[in-house]
Amino acid sequence: MKRTFPLLLLATALLFPASAAAMGARLKDLVMISGARDNQLVGYGLVVGLAGEGDKNPVYTLRSLANLLQRFGQQLPAQALVAKNVAVVMITADLKAFTKVGQRIDITVSAMGDARSLQGGVLIQTPLFGVDRKVYALAQGPLAVGGFIGGNNSASVQKNHPTVATISGGALVEAEMPTQIVENRELELLLRDSDFTSAARLAQAINERFKDSARAIDSTSVKVRIPEGLEEASVDFVSRIEDIEVSPDAAARIVINERTGTIVATSQVKISSCAVSHGDLTITIANTFDVSQPNSLSQTGETSVTPRADTKVNERKGTMITLNDLPTIDRVAAGLNAIGVTPRDMMAIFGSMKQAGALQAELILR
After folding, report:
1. Would you state the CATH architecture of domain 24-35+180-246?
2. Angstrom distance (rounded) from CA 109 to CA 139
3. What is each CA distance from 108 to 93, 118, 123, 171, 328, in whole angstroms?
4. What are the CA-CA distances from residue 358 to residues 253, 258, 316, 351, 362 (Å)?
5. Domain boundary assignment for the chain
6. pLDDT digits (tens, 9 = 90+) for 147-171
7. Model confidence over 288-319: pLDDT tens digits?
8. What's the CA gap between 131 and 137, in Å, rounded?
9. Which of 21, 125, 190, 279 is most buried (CB neighbours < 10 A)?
């Protein structure tokens, strides 16, 4: 069988002209503000109304159901309950910064036990806790399942994951998460992709708009001092610096995923002068069977089947090509394509170039 590697991505230099690559990105797309972070919430609850697709009476489901009924004045032992229409679930959600009391957030509901499907179920009111064990939201509502399962133990059909569901706006925020972005009249900007050059360029771009207000602390952090007169208008100041355009820098890097045949390279990749030999070796093995039987008038011997294997080896003549100093990724790609390499071959060539010291880039294998 042939293994096909269909995808080769050689970064933006092959897709966009040089002038487009020189254009800057908005600061708001490159950084996040320290303190304005999401917070994870989690809860443990019950989903009911599963039409026989629920848990198969595990102890924790029965105890949870008994505790739920006790809240409504029903004192029943767990052994007297049946849980085939009930499933124990975990609820997860992200509480974004500055979310206010009364707003709604999306939640994800995942079955914990052996329930076959959550389709048609309804989540009973469940508190969602933060890492400090305080309740920040209450979740409840009908589930939206993006899959299904049907059939019985002998034959069934399934699509996607019917044991995971979502509820859009399924949790009501009951408490705000403390958020502070300004400290001592300073904002701290955190680069999503750490790089010293990018941090320096970002601080320089801000100082061109607001003189002597920004300084790079390290490859990730840039601190910005709020100018005089804008101390009480931090939101307006953040809005003004978010539109500043910066040209971020990126290290020369090639990422190779051999499982999918994907190669992604940044435009800074450079190959020093070297020579590359590329050849093809094809081995074909064909199995056939010979039938051996005695003569028609012979009184001895038996008919037998004898396997036979034919092996052929075909090696195409290799090609030696010299690659001069190639400063850009498009010329690198053109040089390698000139010898007709496939993505899989290119992975091996890049690996050999790195070992030879000719590839001036970080090589990452996935």
Report:
1. 2-Layer Sandwich (3.30)
2. 10
3. 6, 12, 11, 10, 45
4. 14, 21, 26, 10, 12
5. 24-35+180-246, 39-173, 253-365
6. 656 655 555 556 667 899 999 999 9
7. 667 677 766 666 667 776 766 565 555 555 55
8. 13
9. 190
